[in-house]
Structure formats: C-alpha cells, structure tokens
Input
Amino acid sequence: RCPYRVGNRLSLFVAPRIGGPYEPIRCEITRVFQPFFRACEMAVCLVPPSPRLPGPLTLKLFDRRFAYGFRQRYSLPYWTQDIEIQYREFLQSADRPDFDRTHDYFHVPSEATRQEWTVGQHETFFHRVMSNNFCVEDEAYKRLGNMQGRHVPIKWGVVTMELEPLGTPGLSNARCGGFLLQHIQGFPLERLGDYIRPNLWEGICRDAYDIVHNLYTRGIINFECRPEYLRVRPDDDGATPKVFMVDFSTCSFRRSGMSDNEWRRRKADVNEEGAIGSVMELLLQGGYQYRPSQMYLTLAAEFPLPNGI
Output
C-alpha cells in the first residue's frame, strides 16, 4: 500500500542545504500532489518543527514503486510486495554486476529488449534511471543558487528514506532519495485562465519566459518545460502573481569545452519558451497570443528548422 497519504508520518534522513551530515527527521503529510509521475510529491510539516528547515515544505521523493505515471509509460505493472522481493533478490544476485556493466542508465532500451528482462532487472534499471533524475535535479539546484526563492523553490536539503523492510530473511534494505523544498502555494500555469483575470495573463507568461532565459545563462536545458511544471503564486498584496519552475529532473547541462555555437544550437532545438507559449496560447483560447522573445527570434534565425518545420 502506498505510504504517501495525508496524515501518515515518514522517517527520513536529511542533509541540510548548508551541508553537514545526514540527520534523522520525521514529517507528517498534509497534502498529496497526485497523480505521481516521476517523483512522489507532497506537502509536509516536520514533527517536531525545526528552525533550520522552515515551513511550509514540499517533500519530493524519487520512489520508483509509486511513480505511477512513470511505470505506466514503460509498461511496468503496479508495484507489489512480490515485485519488491524479486527486485531485492536480484540486487544480491551474481547477475547484477554484469547487468550494471552492460546497460546505459541514461537511455531506456527498446520495449523488445526489455521484454527479455526479469522483474528484478526491470526494477533495478528504473531505480537507477530515477536515481539519475535525482542527481540531475540536484545539479540544477546547485546552478540555480541565487534564483532559489525568486523563480525556483529553495532547496532546504537532500533526503534519503529507507524503504520498508520486507520481513524476508536475507534480503538487503533499499532506499530512495529526494529533496525538502520550499512549498510554493498556488496553481499550475496551465490553470491560469481559471484563477487570474485576462489583463494579467501577458505579464505572468512573460515571467515564465524570464525563467527560461535565466536557465540559458546558467547552462541548463529543461526538457520538461511545460506549463504543468510551472507554478503561479498569487500575491496577497494585489501585485502581479509570481511564477516558479518546480521540476528539473530531466535537464541537460552545458559542460566545459562546449562552444557558444553548439550551446545556442541546442537551446534553439529544444525551444523551452515556445513549448510554454504555444501551449498557453492554446489553453487560453484566443485570450492570449504567444510572441517569441527577441532571444528566441534570434536563435530561430541562426538555427532554422529543416524544411521550415
């Protein structure tokens, strides 16, 4: 049974943002953000409260067991205890080192290849994929240091959680990683038309594009740059609501040695701004027209799509 339910308490280990060793904490779930896709996200409060981790908080765990959207995308069955037993048996098997050596955990093999895998191999592979997603998001938050609290949530700490013991002798324990983040009260950008009057739509969408422009200067491309992963926080004082980007688990980064031309070409190919703007124009049904920024007009002129597509 999924442990991520309102009222449940979780035991975690957290390494605060300022560094230092992992420390045990307990938190209580106050809200669950379903459906879970790649990560399980929920609002939590610490029990007891801690001045070093001020609330409200979002707990984001990369737990393959209950990442239902992710499992569905790759035709994995709903998690069961029998699946977990087979996974942990494979972790301890003699076949595991060879499986690790022969697979690239950054690219999912074809369905035909995966049909030959055992249950334990499937769970091992996707645990590693989600661990990579966790590492990618951690790298993104490091690059976004001075944007935290302004355009992205504050990352208060990295967490690990021990998964429940199975009660089967001889099987090793398992864990998953995640983050304690600043909780952004609000709604997804894709629901803008339901909550905000039309005269503010242009400014709010431009705020979202500004985040994309800041990713450019910090050497980040976010492949999941969609309105559902942007959160709008209304302002209590009546000012224009603020936009936050809340998912960075599928980013790529500009590495040392990459030329400016190659980096700009990659940015043009992905076009995060257009991915947001074109969807918002469709969702707002004629009440908003996306106009590319000068930055993306320049990129489009430098790197036109083949055949004008």
